[in-house]
Design goal:
8-stranded antiparallel beta sheet; Lysozyme-like; 9 helices; 6-stranded mixed beta sheet; alpha+beta; about 400 residues; single chain; sporulation; 2 domains; elongated
């Protein structure tokens, strides 16, 4: 691993107040300074001498080396949240971009050094949770690390793999609300009226699904029984019966009628997910129905389909728990589960659900009204999984890079 040099800013300077605390995680940034020579040492000198602003972070890493500027058990001013949690408790790592031109992706030597340095810090501090490594963007939406330089989730995965951690696709918790048609983030802030959403992305070319219909079975029990990594309960159902089209391993469990004929289906065949007006007669691994469609060709369409698919008002015009499935242009599957109508979570409107899925790059997306559960400890490969109430479904995806 690359050695991290220590050249500390003088204690007591404006950029090193020296407040001791126990670090809670690592926040990674890019310097967004493309000037030649703007590497780790230059940024250290800058923090030590700058007079017109208060700014500091713990480590800078470039294509050749890495320098620590502030001890890890002291706070620094890198997150832009004043005396908030990130400035106070998170270690800031800046990744230099001196070796590339604006608009170009980060060069490989710098990227590898950054992965190595962050992995060292994570292991040294005893951080082993996905949520303990975050991009600066989570604080208030700043384009940092710059979108042209690296994919945030891929960088995180590479760090954990460098740490020797075998990863399932990560479940990420985000807290959201909308204002005047614009999606807002307020992760961890429970003073704001908002909703927690748990989000997962799976490789759309390597999915294995199994549908289990077993009355009275518990979701958690079926997940363990079938060795699944992730699972959901039934789609729409009433009085113990699945509503709408439902197919498991080519066998028809239920068929749509009435207004259900206008609903869209979610299906998996040959390990690949699809959303659309699908033929239930096809030999699907799994097929279920839901409404309304939220995203079509990348555009928000929830209100049109809310009316066209006759979605009940308690789902269509009010806040509620939501389970959302979407497919991006690459064919990868995205799942989001939103809490709702609790002390801290107001639930999502369909507009918020659609805005959220659009923000994740969905090409197609629908609400399927499922519940979903993660089996965090399972690392099996090549086995089917399951989960249900009156009917249920689970899926597994081998680990893959997340974009």
């Amino acid at each position: 691993m690359i050695a991290i040099k220590q050249k500390f800013i003088p204690l007591g300077s404006p950029n090193r107040p020296g407040r001791r605390r126990q670090a809670r995680g690592v926040l990674f940034h890019t310097t967004n300074n493309w000037k030649y020579g703007a590497g780790d040492e230059m940024h250290g000198e800058y923090m030590a001498t700058v007079k017109d602003r208060v700014v500091s972070w713990h480590v800078t890493v470039d294509k050749d080396s890495a320098t620590q500027h502030i001890p890890f058990d002291e706070n620094a001013y890198h997150a832009g949240d004043g005396n908030g949690d990130y400035n106070s408790y998170w270690i800031g790592v800046e990744i230099a971009c001196e070796a590339v031109e604006p608009g170009e992706p980060l060069d490989l030597p710098t990227y590898r050094n950054a992965v190595d340095v962050v992995a060292q810090i994570m292991m040294q501090q005893g951080f082993d949770s996905w949520e303990q490594l975050q991009p600066h963007k989570v604080v208030y939406g700043k384009d940092c690390p710059h979108h042209s330089l690296l994919y945030h989730d891929r960088f995180k995965r590479d760090v954990f793999e460098r740490m020797g951690t075998k990863l399932l696709p990560a479940v990420v918790k985000e807290r959201i609300y909308s204002m005047n048609g614009v999606l807002k983030r307020c992760d961890g802030d429970y003073k704001v009226k908002a909703t927690d959403v748990r989000y997962l992305k799976l490789d759309g070319k390597r999915l294995r699904f199994k549908f289990v219909a077993r009355t009275g079975a518990k979701v958690s029990e079926l997940l363990i029984e079938y060795g699944a990594d992730f699972a959901t309960n039934a789609p729409y159902f009433w009085d113990g019966k699945v509503l709408g089209d439902a197919v498991a391993e080519g066998q028809v469990i239920a068929q749509a009628y009435g207004k259900m004929l206008t609903w869209h289906e979610f299906g998996v065949k040959g390990g690949r997910p699809q959303i659309g007006q699908l033929d239930p007669i096809v030999q699907w691994d799994v097929l279920v129905q839901g409404a309304p469609l939220l995203i079509e060709a990348g555009n928000i369409c929830w209100d049109y389909y809310r009316i066209q698919q006759q979605v009940p008002d308690d789902i269509g015009t009010s806040r509620a728990q939501r389970t959302l499935y979407g497919i991006d242009a690459s064919g990868d599957l995205h799942i989001a589960v939103a809490d709702g109508r609790t002390k801290f979570d107001q639930g999502l409107t369909l507009e918020e659900a659609a805005l959220y899925m659009q923000s994740k790059g969905m090409h197609l997306g629908a609400e399927l009204r499922w519940r979903w559960l993660q089996c965090a400890g399972s690392e099996r490969e090549g086995e089917p999984g399951a989960k249900s109430r009156s009917g249920g479904e689970s899926g597994e995806s081998r680990p893959s890079d997340l974009d």
